[in-house]
What does this fold into?
Amino acid sequence: MNDYLHDTIPNLKPFSYERHHDSHFINQQWVLVNGISKKKSIYTFKEDNVLEISRKNNVIKTTWNINIQNNFTIETEDGLITVEAYFKDDDILVLNNQDKEEFALYINTTNYEDELNSIEDIQAYLKEKYKKKVSTIIYDHEFYYIEKSKEFGPFTVEQLSEKVKNEEISTYCFVRDVNEYDYSKRLRIEDLIQEL
It folds into this structure.
């Protein structure tokens, strides 16, 4: 079962009670991605094992429990199901059904201002989220660049951008991450600057 999930969504982190329960899980608004184009559902896992499922003007209250192995049982319209919880990151929760090859994907919208009502909204949310993440990573990271067969660096993207503005180097110079050994990714300074 887990191979199916991890092949579909790689790099999942298992739910950790100490790390996730209070800060990332309880009282957060989790929008169910599966089937959002048909009906939007918001899941809120409350203390005292209450699960609120909001759909339009209707709120269903049901129950959930967690055991020592971090497996959840959730009372649904179809009966009791057992799931394992994983996080893709702090805002993406995956509940993997233990009895079938299926999972539910949720996005935490507690701190998100716009409504998620469609696949397009989810795509826009994810695009914006990962653009911010990439910008943050790139901003602090360092790169080497090659010009006229000589390698220079390492420099931050901000430093490289400044060199380009001062016309010290071309935006078309190839760059490599400090952790890479060659320029085979064919990344240019202009690619990095666009992400700032």
Observations:
- The first strand starts at residue 13 and ends at 14.
- The CA atoms of residues 30 and 108 lie 4 Å apart.
- The chain has a mean pLDDT of 87.
- The helical segments are 2-8, 17-25, 119-140, 157-165, 189-195.
